[in-house]
Amino acid sequence: MSVVMAPPPTSQQTPLPERYALLSDEACDELIAEAKAKLGRRVVILGHHYQRDEVIKFADYTGDSFKLAQLASQRPEADYIVFCGVHFMAESADILSAGHQRVSLPDLAAGCSMADMANIDQVEECWEALQEGIEETIVPVTYMNSAANLKAFCGRHGGIVCTSSNAEGVLRWAFERGSGVLFFPDEHLGRNTGLKMGIPIARMPVWNPFRDMGGLTDHQIEESRILLWKGHCSVHQRFTPQQVHEARTVYPDIRVLVHPECRHEVVEMADLVGSTEYIIKAVEDSPAGTQWAIGTEIHLVHRLGDRHPDKLVMSLEPTVCVCTTMYRIDPPHLLWTLENLLEDTVVNLISVPEDIKADARLALDRMLAIHK
Ligand code: 13P
Ligand code: SF4
């Protein structure tokens, strides 16, 4: 079996030139606005909803990971895409954008710990074991939060990518093509979606890549409908059923709204479950006076609170629940990126190797074709 290697998903960021550290916030903002104006339509800045306010205010477009992938494929007029998000999102933008476009991630340390929980060698090993043990067709499905070479793996093996906004539609697509699914790297999104589709938990065992045969018996593997990968989001893992109880005790009318990366015990207690785009819309569409306890990254929750002073918007988790890698993108790194673009220098270029790109694009295009 061929093993395609790709660069590690996250890397170190070299320190910025000293002048960026010395700038005041106001001066930094002014210079960002100036550089952006000079670049005009040559640059498009995409911002994920978890970005901090100081960065998101400069985004031309904001979105969840699905919407940002769509946007990256629809803005060919821009020579440069500056991705204010994390590494796997910038890779997807590179895969989906036109050949002349170049993608930059302002801080290379903006990775994703969940994406790092599955690598190509582990997935190839699992796949080989499944091919030996099972007669039926298995369809590999990777969550968007994964390295490009895992998307390419899915492309090569008749599989597909999903995001938190389309996982059910994608799994339906997969079950039209096979009797089982290998779903990586987020066990929670896979389990929550499978449960919603009526698949019993016993038929969704978890493959642990650090154990022989994933730590599963032959029977468990043969009986599985979705083989989940042992992986999780460190941010969404922190929400608990106890927090839902506590929120409802203090605010009996509160509506609990969580992201599907949360564990299923939390998801099954929630009133609503959906991607970041869904969460924003649910709050926006609710009448004044509605009370919300939200289980997702804190920057989005705070922003929703600021935008809707007529509603109560609070985090389910009483302490701070930050995606520390998203937080790596700050105004000085954005300014550094834009000022270099003025000289046609693309710092932190995210460039997926061509062979990986072609296969990964197959899997992403399959997703884009069936969305919703
Ligand atoms: P969405 O952008 O699909 O809501 O996912 C959230 C997330 O964790 C991104 O890393
Ligand atoms: Fe990764 Fe979780 Fe951060 Fe999303 S919120 S980028 S899944 S660590």
Mean pLDDT: 95
Widest sheet: strand order?
Answer: 6-5-7-9-8
CATH class of the largest domain: Alpha Beta
Task: Supply the number of structural domains.
Answer: 3
Task: Count every beta strand, where a strand is a DSSP E run of 2 or more residues.
Answer: 13
CATH superfamily of the largest domain: NadA-like
List the helices and strands in order: HHEHEHEHEHEHEHEHEHEHEHEHEHEHH
Q: Estimate percent helicity.
A: 40-55%
The unreliable regions are 1-9
Class inferred from helices and paired strands: alpha/beta
Please name the CATH topology of the largest domain: Rossmann fold
Q: Based on CA inertia axes, which overall geometry fits?
A: globular
Say which molecules are bound, naming each kind only once. Answer: 1,3-dihydroxyacetonephosphate, iron/sulfur cluster
Characteristics of this structure?
globular, Rossmann fold, binds 1,3-dihydroxyacetonephosphate, 372 residues, binds iron/sulfur cluster, disordered N terminus, 4-stranded parallel beta sheet
Overall description:
The chain is an alpha/beta fold and 372 residues long. The protein folds into three domains: 121 residues, NadA-like (Rossmann fold, 3-Layer(aba) Sandwich); 119 residues, NadA-like (Rossmann fold, 3-Layer(aba) Sandwich); 80 residues, NadA-like (Rossmann fold). Strands 6-5-7-9-8 form a five-stranded parallel beta sheet, with helices on both faces. Strands 2-1-3-4 form a four-stranded parallel beta sheet, with helices on both faces. Helix 12 links the parallel strand 10 and strand 11. Helix 7 packs across helix 16. The longest helix is centred in the C-terminal third of the chain and has 17 residues. The protein is globular. The chain starts with 17 loop residues before the first helix and ends with a helix. The relative contact order is 0.17. Bound molecules: 1,3-dihydroxyacetonephosphate and iron/sulfur cluster. Iron/sulfur cluster binds next to loops.
